[in-house]
Amino acid sequence: MTTAELKTLEACQTATDWSRACDAIKLAHGGGYPTDWYAKVIQSGMANRIAARWGGDAELHFTVIPTENEEAR
Asked: Engineered SS bond to 58: which of 21, 32, 45, 47, CB 3.0-4.6 Å?
């Protein structure tokens, strides 16, 4: 990751900012996170620290989306 990419993440104030910054970083790296993403953003605690600004965290959260059959019940 570049210093500029890390600064962009540091500047995020909302979940939307974070999402847009992450999308731009992935785009710049061929559609995926750079190889040092986990160490520099996750393991370092950066993601949790920044996400705490809007009451979030760096954990994966899953949402069950009902299928059409389940919605009909």
From this structure: 47
